C-alpha cells in the first residue's frame, strides 16, 4: 500500500503540473477547457490515492479528501455535457467506484455511510448495474450492522446475496453470507447459528478453507453470545488451525482473540 500510495501521488502531481504548462487554457471553473482524458486520468489518480490510503488503514480524512476531490471533478465534467446527456461510460464507472470507496471511508460514521450507500444503491438499480448495486448493498448491510440494526442489515444482506447469485458470483455471495450471519447475530442467535453452520458445511464441501474458517469463527461468536464458552473455544481452535495452514496470519490473530 505504501508503494501504491507513492505511485498514485506521483501520478497526481504530474497530471496537475500539466495544467500549468503553456497552451493549456482555463475556463472559469477550470474544467471545460481541459481535455476529457486529462480529467479522467486525474480522477483515476485521486481514486488510487484514496484506495491506497484506505488499504493502509490510516488517514481516513485524507482518503476522503482525495475521493471528494475526484467526485467534484466528475461533477464539473457533468456540468459540461448537454442537458439530458450522460457522462461517458469511463467517467460513470469511475464515479461509481469512487462513491463505493468513499462509503468505505465513512464506516466510522455508520449513519452517514448508510445514507450514501443507500443513495448509491438506488442509482445503480436505476442504471441496471446489478454488480454495483450488490456492492452498495453489502456496504449498506455493514453500516446497519455497525448501528446495531439487525432487521435492516439482514434485509440488505439478503438482497445482496440474491443479486450475487443472479450474477453467478460465488465469491461475492460468500462474503455477503458472512454479513448476513453478523446481522442475525445481533437479533437472533438461533438463526445465526443455523446459517453459520450451513455456511461451514457448504465451504467445507467446496474446499474453500478460508471461508470455512471465517464461518467457524462466526459459529464461535454465536456460542459466546449464548454463553457456551467451551464450545466457542473448541471451534475457534479449529478455525485457527485452518488459517494457520493457509498462512493467513491476520485472520489467525483475530481468531486467537476469539478463543
TrEMBL record:
Signal peptide: none annotated. Transmembrane segments: none annotated. This is TTC28 protein. SUPFAM superfamilies: TPR-like (SSF48452). Gene3D superfamilies: Tetratricopeptide repeat domain (1.25.40.10). Residues 1-27 are annotated as: Disordered. The gene is TTC28. InterPro entries: TPR-like_helical_dom_sf.
